[in-house]
Inverse folding.
């Protein structure tokens, strides 16, 4: 009887030690970061180092691009925004727009950022990707995660502003002309004093950056204006800290 009790106790001790060891292994196991591979196509010739070699201006903003780059199946190409120059590392980069029927859209369609069409584009979902030149290839950034893994860590205010603008979480209003248009709407109701509507800013903190912004959609045709505060971590993670409705209109948006 005594032997049986000792045997049972021994089994319980061994089982407990095994469980504790497994818990320790799980809690200290290194988590591998998932890396998304970029879709790539070869340059038309190895001497290409700029999109000027494969694209021409169609309008002030839209491009006509031909050759291997067409394999990315973009509905349109657009010239890079000026703030792209502040992203690090720096690559030649342009914008790739794709459209899908909204009813067919799912997260599997990716898109660094996504906008629902209105007006003539009602019922369409517009996906924005970025194309850059690197290692003898055109490479497609087609998700926010890919963009993040390419351009982090973020180490300066200029980088932070460029990174935030490229992801289009909201609009950075940094010029007086745009600010005045927000402060002097002929229609609608301000929920704060227009004097409280000020230029946005990007401020560095110990862990990252604090960013003030306005809802991007109100720069076109919408009925509400929001003020935001975001936290941008140095690893590219963005957290919405606050969102405040500061203007609204009951008028129908027709444009």
């Amino acid at each position: 009887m005594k032997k049986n009790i000792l045997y049972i106790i021994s089994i319980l001790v061994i089982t407990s030690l095994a469980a504790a060891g497994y818990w320790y292994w799980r809690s200290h196991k290194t988590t591998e970061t998932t890396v998304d591979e970029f879709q790539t196509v070869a340059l038309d010739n190895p001497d290409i180092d700029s999109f000027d070699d494969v694209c021409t201006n169609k309008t002030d903003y839209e491009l006509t691009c031909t050759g291997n780059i067409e394999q990315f199946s973009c509905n349109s190409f657009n010239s890079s925004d000026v703030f792209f120059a502040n992203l690090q590392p720096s690559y030649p980069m342009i914008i790739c727009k794709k459209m899908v029927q909204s009813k067919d859209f799912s997260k599997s369609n990716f898109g660094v950022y996504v906008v629902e069409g209105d007006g003539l584009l009602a019922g369409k979902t517009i996906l924005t990707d970025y194309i850059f030149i690197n290692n003898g290839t055109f490479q497609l950034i087609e998700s926010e995660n890919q963009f993040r893994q390419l351009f982090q860590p973020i180490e300066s205010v200029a980088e932070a502003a460029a990174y935030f603008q490229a992801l289009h979480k909201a609009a950075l209003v940094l010029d007086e002309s745009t600010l005045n248009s927000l402060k002097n709407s002929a229609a609608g109701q301000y929920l704060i004093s227009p004097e409280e509507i000020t230029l946005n800013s990007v401020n560095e903190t110990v862990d990252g950056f604090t960013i003030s912004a306005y809802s991007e959609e109100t720069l076109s045709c919408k009925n509400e204006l929001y003020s935001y505060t975001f936290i941008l971590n140095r690893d590219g993670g963005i957290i919405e800290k606050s969102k405040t409705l500061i203007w609204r209109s009951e008028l129908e948006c027709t444009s």
Observations:
- The chain has a mean pLDDT of 82.
